[in-house]
Amino acid sequence: MDRRRLAEFLRTRREALQPEDVGLPRGTRRRTGGLRREEVAALSGMSTDYYSRIEQQRGPHPSEQMLAAIARGLRLTVDERDHLFRLGGYATPRRVPRTDHLNPGMMRILDRLADTPAQVVNHLGETLSQTRPAIALLGDETRHTGLARSLHYRWFTDPETRQRYVSEDHATWSRLIAAHLHAAYTRDGAGSRAAELVDGLLAASPEFAALWREHPVAGTFCPPKRFQHPRVGRLELHCQVLVDPDQSQTLLVYTAVPGTDSHEKLALLSVVGDQMADLPG
Predict the structure, then answer these.
(1) Residue 225: what are its φ and ψ, rounded to 5°?
(2) Higher-pLDDT residue of 55, 221
């Protein structure tokens, strides 16, 4: 661990990051650019004292988990994250398409959509981050572990996953999800996380196995969706998509036509999302 260079690197990245980059107000009393240490600590999910001691070249040797949290808090690129790990005395995390390291550009956009249902997913259907209105709409999709992190896997193995979608659309979504996973498997090949998901689903779901044998081809992954929400009822939403090809991540933003019943319900979810966000997924 190179304490001096680690501290210098963190300080330069903290000072280069502006409050607006992470959705924080600049305020009238801020005299210098960059983020304060307490702001980085809050974004990283750790105490101000712990983070400050790293920048001051003292304190304990930060774990890999702590460095990963700081990398997310500082919105580091993948290359910057790898450099951070090397300064901390660790091997760089393996670069695989299913990375949990949210692309900084995606994160900056998501930070500006705090009042909108939006989320970032990777190419395996694993949700990496959600806004509060998205949690209110869909449930907390980041809480799952193992294969169940993927919506593709939960769709075919957990009946509760389908409850938020109109039942008449289930067959369409089954085929679309199977096709999307087929595309990921074709690209990533044997031994990949996509292959692990496919093997698990072939063993667990006859429905998926039947669709898989048809070699489905993916079309538009996010066409208009009809939801059946446990609190506000049915919503018909459009899904806007922003794809980051380098990170295999997709930003999904849910909207409704103004003046419709769905628009009013979506606005309600955005306002009272904190009260609804803890509903079962």
Answers:
(1) -120, 145
(2) 55
